[in-house]
Amino acid sequence: MQKKASTVVFFGQTLAAVAQPLIIFTPTKMAALWFPDHQRATANMMASMANPLGILIANMASPKIARTAQLPLLMLVYAVVACVSCFLVTMGMRCSAPPPTPPSASAEHSTSEPFRHGFKLLLRNRAYLLLLCFGSGVAVFTCFSTLLDQILCVQGYTDDFVGLCGALFIALGMVGAALPGLYVDKTKKFIEAIKVNMSLSAMVACAFTVVCLMQDQKVAVAIVCALFGFLGVSIYPAVMELSVECSYPVGEATSAGLVFISGQVQSLIYIILLQALATPIAESPRLTCTLAPQSWKVPVMLLSALSAVSSCIFLIFFHTPYRRLEDEKAAIYGTGQGNGTAASENK
After folding, report:
1. Residue 294: which H helix or E strand, with range?
2. pLDDT tens digit string along 32-85?
3. Residues whose CB falls within 8 Å of the CB of residue 313, separated by 6 or more in sequence, listed in order
4. pTM to 2 decimal places
5. Alpha helix stretches (DSSP H) within the chain
């Protein structure tokens, strides 16, 4: 019976993982086809942050439901929410074509490359390959949220406090996402905004390395976790837009999606590496770990180093024209051929 249950759980997790790309990659495509250039980053931000909002609500509600009821009831709540959402999306979203009046020149003349050809173009695009440094940033944030409990329990912090830090990480990231989205929509300074955020995020990662090794520093730990989310998570929508700008006319879902996939691959590598570097420590009355306690000093230092290195590489070497914006200007003020310039540069 236990083996059968494990198989069902594994199948469910796999099915959810397969479905995830169909949701994660859509905001950039939706913003490109349905919103003008001065609203794309904001639209992408609102759609992208819906995912962490759901995670935040689940993380806050799940412990309360689990304390007052049995685990099957919690699973039933998850199932009801998923089924209702699926029904609303299936019955409520019936748009199968772009709007009759294109909101921008790039949407009007959209000729996204086929995936295989677009993938080859991306491999030859130096700026886009450097943008995969942000994939390392995604991996750092994933490791942070995944291993936070194991890192902090060694210093005696409770599960409730760790949950608060995780909630602050996500909530402040959602609040902070509004600022880069509005800023880049007004100024079109994608690169400058992302470089500033990545640099500050690397500094906060180094600060977390210091405070997470201290005892009885709840305020400092909570502030650092909140700042890490505010500066790091918030820049995700702007990076997705920049991935389209530097790789146009490659399809929006392809360029943005591969950045996210690279982050997930790197997350897997980082988590395995960090867990391998953690060393067992002796039991102590102040420990709150449910698993065997381990020292995370070296893994956390490595995590901050990875954040700093990826930020430095992006800060120093990343330079690119905004291909989509340039083609839109050409379509309006120049020859009227919406994607000719970018297409010729990519061939």
Report:
1. strand 294-295
2. 878 888 888 888 888 877 778 887 887 777 777 766 667 778 788 888 888 888
3. 130, 133
4. 0.79
5. 2-24, 26-34, 40-48, 50-68, 71-92, 105-108, 115-123, 126-131, 133-153, 159-187, 190-211, 218-232, 236-247, 252-277, 297-317, 323-333, 340-346
The torsion defined by the Cα of 61, 91, 95 and 22, in degrees rounded to 10, comes to 50
What backbone torsions phi and psi does residue 295 show, to the nearest 5 degrees? -85, 125
Q: Which residues 6+ apart lie within 8 Å of 185 measured at CB?
A: 38, 39, 40, 41, 42
Between helix 236-247 and helix 159-187 the angle, nearest 10°, is: 40
Judged by phi (left if over 0) then psi (alpha if -120 to 50, else beta), residue 99 lies in beta
pLDDT for 146-163, tens place per residue? 888 888 888 888 878 888
Name the 3-class secondary structure at 184.
helix
Structure tokens that stand for 118 in this block: 């677009």
Strand partners, 279: 295
Where do the domains of the chain lie, and which CATH numbers do they carry? 26-84+128-346 (1.20.1250.20)
Q: Report the alpha-carbon distance of residue 169 to residue 205 in Å, rounded.
A: 12
Cα(12)–Cα(192) distance, integer angstroms: 41
CA distance 248 to 109: 12
CA distance 259 to 234: 16
DSSP 8-state code for residue 98: -
For residue 24, CA distances in Å to 92, 118, 128, 190 come to 19, 19, 19, 20
Mean pLDDT calculated for residue range 241-267: 85
Nearest-angstrom CA–CA distance, 268 and 276: 12
Residue type, 213: L
Instruction: Judge whether 73 and 65 are in contact, CB under 8 Å.
Output: yes
